[in-house]
């Protein structure tokens, strides 16, 4: 991404790059080239934010759903932009989308958004605003209570990964042990999500699984 120069001048590199990406989107529909689609929407979303144009959550999600590929930059960049705006309004929007049972891709994006806004990211577009390291997000309890039941009911592996990652970022160390029910899940990505947040709570996990005399081998089933 472009990082130098004043992006707001009339013919800045940012504006030229934005026009090029917009032109790429227009031509992309007519082209049927093999391989992953180019990340034109990701570029547009990033450059617009740099230029002070902040799209609504619905608009950002629509861009992610053009290809609906969670491993694609067109999916990840909108999530990053939402992560920079972690407030009650964005949380409520993401929770509502994650509750939409009519579309798998919308639910996936909503759950991914709940995970991203839990990171508490500082926005690079507003350098004067910084979160304190120990500052709790205002919707932390709501997020925990929304995600906890999904640990028992979610069937889609991608969505379950997002539920586990989101839940463990919002909940307490004791509550995080609830994800152990998925330690033997058939999907490797789900097993990794279970193991990752527990590495910092290894002693606590030991005590709950086997008691105070448990050996280090009790952790092998979650790797």
Question: What would your notes on this structure say?
Answer:
The protein has 12 helices and no strands. The protein has 223 residues and is mainly α. The model is unreliable at 203-223 (pLDDT under 50).
Write the layout of secondary structure elements.
Blueprint: H1 13-28, H2 40-50, H3 57-64, H4 73-83, H5 88-98, H6 104-117, H7 140-147, H8 150-153, H9 157-170, H10 173-176, H11 188-198, H12 202-210
Helix pairs in contact: 1-2, 2-4, 3-4, 4-6, 5-6, 6-9, 7-9, 9-11
* Strand segment count: 0
In quaternary terms, these chains amount to single chain
- What proportion of the residues form beta strands (DSSP E)? under 5%
Query: Residue-averaged pLDDT, rounded?
Result: 81
Query: What is the end-to-end distance?
Result: 35 Å
Most strands sheet: none
Structural class: mainly alpha
* Radius of gyration computed on alpha carbons: 20 Å
Q: Which regions have little confidence, pLDDT < 50, spanning 5+ residues?
A: 203-223
Principal-axis shape: globular
Brief overview, please?
With about 220 residues, the protein is mainly α. The protein contains 12 helices and no strands.
Provide key terms for this protein:
single chain; 223 residues; mainly alpha; 54% helix
